[in-house]
Design brief:
Layout (H helix, E strand, L loop, with lengths): L3 E2 L5 H5 L12 H6 L11 E2 L16 H8 L12 H13 L10 H5 L14 H19 L5 H19 L2 H4 L2 H17 L7 H8 L10 H11 L9 H20 L7 H7 L4 H5 L1 H10 L1 H12 L6 H30 L8 H33 L7 H17 L10 H11 L3 H19 L8 H11 L5
Antiparallel strand pairs: 1-2
Length: about 475
């Protein structure tokens, strides 16, 4: 029989048979008791067990049984479900539920590959431990409960140990489960930025200014796994392809901020497993544009330190940068028009927030890409005053987008954290930069839980020198 809708109250209130305040997250009772509000707002269904008629040797199966069998989708678990594994699966499914507010929704912000994890739990100890860490970190993040940080950190430490063990095995290291475990742990780190004193300074360097950290970050490790797997992007495994698609952006942004990740243009092309249809869209065109910048930066720096006269080489690089910048301007125009034409009334209520947040994020990232390309171009030309009119205009536009995207904080607008830092580079004067510095502090406090301004002006200037090629 079809499922009968049940209540939307959280698990704790349902267990105690209390009325749940489903209009607020976390609910009033969980907030008062300082417990994780799990299952809040999740639509549940009650089902009746139905025994199918079996086809015996002397008796053909009835048409009713055949119809019933066709309506059942059976998923074979990776192993016999234990109480621990089934509990973990249930808690993780709630964490990635589409019913969760976009402000706290994991798949929308970090990638749809998360939806494929439940059926892979039990295959890899590293993935199981990483998923358990993410579930605990996400629940703590949503509840704003700092008392569970030590417990989350203990889970994170165990997950790292399991991951190291799997990476020592060549076969396991190349599996999609190991790559997924790396990505899941990188997401869980976002929660650790809030209050844990032992990891906070290190993780600030990893996520905002990775060039200062001497170790290997999770994203760098993921890039190494991709390289060791010889860019296997033709897999028939949909989960693996989706995982690679979602991994591209973090790898590209880390490559922008550090020299530890370096792929050639041909290698970036192999990583790009987008469909031809997607690459024709403005979002796909934007990714092709920003994916070309890390290799461009490496070649520009190599040309500047050449002992022989690099004039012709620099001229070719300047023309290449101008071409990318013109493409980026066209993408910005298209994305700006798309945002201006957006009418919430044309979308279902459950899609209005995600669509609007996506349009804001896409435009902000394209504007930030344009500012970076302007910095590179001015570095090649050797112009001392590198701020141009386009960069200052785009910087102001990013500020306007940040003001609109506040309603999607914390997780629904995290891309603005890096966009605001890049907007600082394009600001026209010191007063505009002061305004952006205050915005960065407010966004860090809201999205990351930072109580102090950990982003110093010197760190912003260091990033600016990198993109203007002054750190050669």
């Amino acid at each position: 029989m079809p499922g009968v809708p049940s209540g939307r109250g959280c698990d704790a209130c349902r267990k105690q048979k209390k009325k749940c305040d489903i209009d607020n997250f976390p609910c009033t009772r969980c907030s008062r008791l300082k417990i994780d509000c799990i299952g809040h707002g999740q639509q549940r269904y009650k089902f009746k067990n139905k025994t199918l008629d079996l086809a015996l040797p002397h008796r053909p199966a009835s048409k009713k049984a055949l119809r019933s069998h066709q309506q059942v989708w059976v998923v074979q678990p990776a192993q016999n479900l234990s109480n621990r594994l089934s509990s973990l699966t249930s808690r993780f499914i709630h964490s990635i539920s589409q019913d969760v507010d976009i402000r706290f929704q994991l798949p929308w912000n970090f990638g749809p590959y998360l939806s494929g994890i439940p059926c892979r739990l039990g295959r890899s100890a590293a993935l199981d431990a990483a998923t358990d860490t993410l579930v605990a970190a996400h629940a703590s993040f949503c509840a704003g409960n700092a008392t569970s940080d030590q417990a989350v950190f203990a889970k994170y430490s165990r997950a790292l140990s399991d991951l190291r063990h799997d990476l020592d095995d060549v076969a396991k290291a190349r599996s999609p489960e190991s790559l997924c475990a790396v990505m899941v742990l990188s997401i869980a780190q976002v929660r650790f930025l809030t209050s844990h004193p032992d990891v906070k300074p290190k993780l600030i360097q990893i996520f905002i200014f990775p060039t200062q950290d001497p170790g290997v970050t999770h994203i760098e490790g993921a890039a190494q796994i991709i390289r060791s797997r010889r860019f296997v992007t033709s897999s028939s495994d949909d989960f693996e392809r989706t995982l690679l698609l979602c991994l591209r952006a973090p790898v590209v942004f880390d490559a922008l901020l550090t020299d530890k990740i370096h792929f050639s243009s041909q290698e970036w092309e192999l990583i790009n497993v987008s469909t031809p249809e997607y690459r024709m869209l403005p979002d796909g065109r934007w990714f092709d544009c920003i994916a070309a910048i890390p290799d461009l930066l490496q070649r520009c720096k190599a040309a500047l330190i050449m002992s022989s006269a690099p004039g012709l080489h620099l001229l070719a690089l300047e023309l290449e940068t101008r071409s990318l910048l013109e493409d980026c301007k066209g993408i910005i125009t298209t994305l700006r028009e798309r945002l201006q034409k957006y009418d919430p009334a044309t979308k279902p209520p459950q899609l209005r927030g995600p669509v609007h947040a996506h349009f804001l994020r896409s435009l902000a990232l394209a504007l930030a890409t344009g500012i970076i390309l302007n910095c590179v171009l001015n570095g090649l030309e050797g112009t001392s005053d590198w701020v141009c009119e386009d960069s200052s205009t785009w910087s102001e536009e990013i500020i306007e987008i940040a003001e609109q995207a506040i309603i999607y904080q914390p997780l629904g607008s995290m891309a603005l954290l890096i966009c605001l830092r890049i907007a600082w580079m394009g600001a026209a004067n010191s007063s505009a930069r002061k305004e952006i510095e205050m915005l960065i502090f407010e966004w860090d406090r809201t999205c990351m839980g930072l109580l102090e301004n950990d982003t110093t002006v010197s760190e912003l200037e260091r990033m600016m020198r990198r993109f203007t090629l002054q750190d050669v």
